[in-house]
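U., I forgot to send this yesterday:
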Amino acid sequence: IKPDVLLLAHGAALVDPEDAQYMLDHTDCHGVQLGSSIERMAIEKPLEERAASFKAVRFPEVLNSHFQNV
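Result:
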């Protein structure tokens, strides 16, 4: 590799700061470039938590028995 070139880690696998630290500690890269992943990181976890909350909603037994027969 040319000495005047910066080698950056980049990709969807870089999701958390721990991922970036791992790349810096275990490769010869000089830095980390986050593309669109940095934009989704702020909303991805809260969205997953919100969806899980809705999934946990329990319907009245009358509705459950009705939809089991459909």
